[in-house]
Specification:
Pathway: Amino-acid biosynthesis; L-leucine biosynthesis; L-leucine from 3-methyl-2-oxobutanoate: step 3/4. Its cofactor is Mn(2+); Mg(2+). Belongs to the isocitrate and isopropylmalate dehydrogenases family. LeuB type 1 subfamily. By secondary structure, this protein is of the alpha/beta class. The protein folds into 2 domains: 183 residues, Isopropylmalate Dehydrogenase (3-Layer(aba) Sandwich); 141 residues, Isopropylmalate Dehydrogenase (3-Layer(aba) Sandwich), CATH 3.40.718.10. It contains 12 helices and 14 strands. Strands 2-1-3-12-11-4-5-10-8-9 form a 10-stranded mixed sheet, with helices on both faces. Strand 6 and strand 7 form a beta hairpin. The chain is globular and about 60 Å long. The mean pLDDT is 97. Bound molecules: 1,4-dihydronicotinamide adenine dinucleotide, 2-OXO-4-methylpentanoic acid and magnesium ion. 2-OXO-4-methylpentanoic acid binds next to helix 4.
Length: 357
């Protein structure tokens, strides 16, 4: 089969980790006789420097006309002083909204051989950890009205509106229940219903949809407690469903279950099979250009692409097995190395994984 993939490398370590993932896809293509056709387009700071806009129309058009999108990361100090709607991060929101990708799957799985890299205590880690965060991706605070106004008593003020419709909550809830049905049949909905009106609607809607899934056990946690429970007792979680900003924060926290944010992949999905696949981490300006970024989050993201957008489960498993073997054989990038281990570069880790495919 022939698959068209839009490639958006972005900024910082984005190009480094995307190059690794593209090599992995090429190798899978050769092995299983698929043609992956890559079209590179720009978004983020690099697009701003080239065209004066972080999300050129062509980028959205190519993304829309592709079977899937592979993205690295956007942003960095060079563009931090741009107005909010012109920042690289706004381009990412534009892509997610423009492609209708409302469901963000972020699976935090601890590979057995990385137990030492996980900062949680051995008795918490023992027996493995596997939590799926299902994050609503096109609503909430990041997309609500925002702006500045003068207040009478406090002067200049800035605001961001947090708004959710029942429809937005229903569709992400269904995705999460469907996932839970295929996994451990436990769903935790995370909100702040003791304070926020949008969270009260969230909880009521989740309760209503739950009636369609009697085989899944549902519980609710406030986000502050959920953040604490994720490190105190992560085994209580199977699937977590939550709104956009809570999911952004909780998934970075959940990345420590895997040992490093450099390990956590993601899939962003909408109504059809088209998805955008990207590591959960950002552009990591502190290590950009040094060739030491962990490419595994992005490589595992293309495994998710094969599974969710192309229905190629065997090929996806091949990548997962290749990554697992690299780790079992003791290969480590700096973020997952413990004291005495030899540290590999991005390219060296990629070569090891390619050798295992
Ligand atoms: N999806 C995206 O494009 C995202 C973009 N950002 C942007 O990225 C920039 C940097 O944001 P930060 O808050 O520093 O978050 P970050 O995720 O880029 O980095 C946080 C820490 O994790 C480390 N790290 C991240 N990925 C790694 C990898 N693959 N291997 C090894 N270590 C890794 C970094 O070196 C850093 O110490 C900002 O401009 C931010 O807005 C942040 C998050 C997501
Ligand atoms: C717009 C992004 C920078 C938000 C983010 O951190 C993420 O999606 O993980
Ligand atoms: Mg984030």
């Amino acid at each position: 089969m022939n698959y068209k993939i839009a490639v958006i490398k972005g900024d910082g370590i984005g190009p480094e980790v995307v190059d690794s993932a593209v090599e992995v896809l090429q190798s899978i293509g050769k092995k299983y006789n698929h043609t992956f056709e890559f079209e590179e387009v720009l978004a983020g700071g690099i697009a701003y420097d080239a065209y004066g806009t972080t999300l050129p129309e062509k980028t959205l058009e190519v993304a829309n006309n592709s079977d899937a999108v592979l993205l690295g990361a956007v942003g960095g100090p060079k563009w931090d002083d741009l107005p909010g709607d012109q920042r690289p991060e706004a381009a990412l929101l534009g892509l997610r909204k423009g492609l209708g990708l409302y469901a963000n799957l972020r699976p935090a799985i601890l590979f057995d051989s990385l137990a030492d890299a996980c900062p949680l205590r051995p008795e918490i880690v023992e027996g493995g950890l596997d939590v799926l965060v299902v994050r609503e991706l096109t609503g909430g605070l990041y997309f609500g009205e925002k702006g500045y106004k003068e207040t009478e008593d406090m002067g200049k003020a800035a605001y961001d509106v947090l708004i959710y419709s029942e429809k937005e909550i229903e569709r992400i809830t269904r995705v999460a229940f469907d996932m839970a049905q295929k996994r451990g049949k436990v769903l935790t909905s995370v909100d702040k219903a003791n304070i926020l009106e949008s969270s009260r609607l969230w909880r009521k809607t989740v309760e209503r949809i739950a009636k369609e899934y009697p085989d899944v056990s549902l519980n609710h946690l406030y986000v502050d407690n959920a953040a604490m429970q994720l490190v105190r007792n992560p085994k209580q979680f199977d699937v977590i469903v939550t709104e956009n900003m809570f999911g952004d924060i909780l998934s970075d926290e959940a990345s420590m279950i895997t040992g490093s944010i450099g390990m956590l992949p993601s899939a962003s999905l909408g109504e059809n099979n088209k998805g955008m696949y990207e590591p959960v981490h950002g552009s990591a300006p502190d290590i950009a250009g040094q060739g030491k970024a962990n490419p595994i989050a992005t490589i595992m993201s293309v495994a998710m692409m094969l599974k969710y957008s192309f229905n190629l489960s065997e090929e996806a498993e091949n990548i997962e097995t290749a990554v697992r073997k690299a780790l079992d054989d003791g290969h480590r990038t700096s973020d997952i190395a413990t004291k005495d281990e030899k540290v590999l570069s991005t390219k060296e880790m990629t070569q090891i994984i390619l050798g295992n495919i």
